[in-house]
Design brief:
The chain is built from eleven helices and eight strands. It is α/β, with parallel strands linked by helices. The chain is globular, with a radius of gyration of 21 Å. Bound molecules: zinc ion (ZN).
């Protein structure tokens, strides 16, 4: 496996769907690939720290040659204790990452032939959980920060649901010169007070970045440039306005507005994952990135998803 920072198609991940089918033609290829992604420098026993190729037992456990402890290749990952074949998980990950706009729970249910919508829905949430890279880099340079409102009449669009209150989402986006955007970050916040906005900016923007805001808000450690021209947001904050429009359109089209406010942040994570990798040359690369993060993401039980215990 090449350096993780510079993975290559054909070596670290399959380039096309045909290759994907070849790579993972049988159920034994999947745990091997999980192992490779999980321990790129080679297996290390969590109990004794030994770095030696483990035995694989007949039940598929990894058996440490030194201390004899056994661990499942998927223990502690989002695949932990799954009753489904890993191949099915891999197929779901390919399906989600190979399509420009991702997949809906209904679409995943159909393509994988799941009996229940809930299974497809919970799988997608588990994958979304893995789309947030722990310790991810901060945005830098010129960054627009502004809030948008999602929900109510925007999402769903059905009368009668309009009484649902809109959710506030703060968006930060890198602005390139002379034009174009870099990466984005988003967070659902309870209100637009400094107590909600300042921690967001501190978390997502590198110190010394230039923060462009609408109206006056000071962010310590950052150079703040406030627009108080009185222009509407789509004029003074074109980057945030554009991202907000794309996110809303995606929620309405791919997910047909069926996103509950409780779970909105999972969807924001998926959108961010996809948007920040939109220039990847190969869709297989997105599959690979998701796999790397899936094996580094602890399991997310169904109950936790339903109750929305978002980890971030
Ligand atoms: Zn050991």
């Amino acid at each position: 496996m090449s350096a993780q920072s510079n993975p290559s198609a054909g070596e670290d991940y399959p380039r096309t769907y045909q290759k994907f089918l070849e790579w993972f033609a049988d159920e034994t290829a999947c745990p091997q690939y999980v192992m490779r992604c999980r321990w790129p420098q080679g297996f290390e026993c969590a109990h004794c720290g030994t770095k030696a190729e483990p035995w694989t037992t007949s039940r598929g456990y990894l058996h440490c040659r030194e201390c004899g402890s056994e661990v499942s290749v998927t223990a502690g990952t989002i695949f932990d204790r799954t009753r489904m074949p890993l191949r099915t998980w891999f197929a779901a990950m390919w399906f989600v990452t190979s399509q420009k706009d991702g997949a809906s729970a209904l679409g995943l249910k159909r393509v994988l032939g799941f009996g229940s919508y809930q299974t497809a829905w919970s799988w997608l949430h588990k994958l979304r959980q893995a789309m947030v890279r722990p310790g991810r880099d901060r945005l830098c340079g010129r960054i627009e920060v502004d809030e948008t409102y999602i929900g109510g009449a925007d999402v769903g669009g059905k009368r009668g649901r309009g009484s649902e209150k809109k959710e506030i989402v703060v968006i930060a986006v890198e602005i390139h010169s002379p034009k174009g955007f870099g990466r984005v970050r988003m967070r659902q916040i309870p209100d637009v007070s400094g107590e909600s906005l300042v921690p967001f900016v501190c978390d997502v923007a590198q110190k010394g970045s230039e923060i462009l805001t609408d109206g006056w808000r000071g962010y310590k450690h950052h150079r703040t440039v406030a627009s108080d021209t009185g222009d509407p947001a789509h004029v003074s904050m074109p980057g945030v306005h554009r991202i907000a429009a794309l996110v809303k359109r995606w929620l309405l089209s791919t997910h047909q507005g069926s996103v509950s406010q409780k779970h909105l942040e999972y969807y924001l994570d998926e959108y961010t994952f996809r948007f920040n990798r939109r220039t990847s040359r190969s869709r297989g690369m997105l599959f690979y990135r998701l796999m790397q993060q899936a094996v580094a993401t602890p399991p997310l039980p169904y109950r936790q998803i339903v109750e929305r215990k978002h980890n971030i």
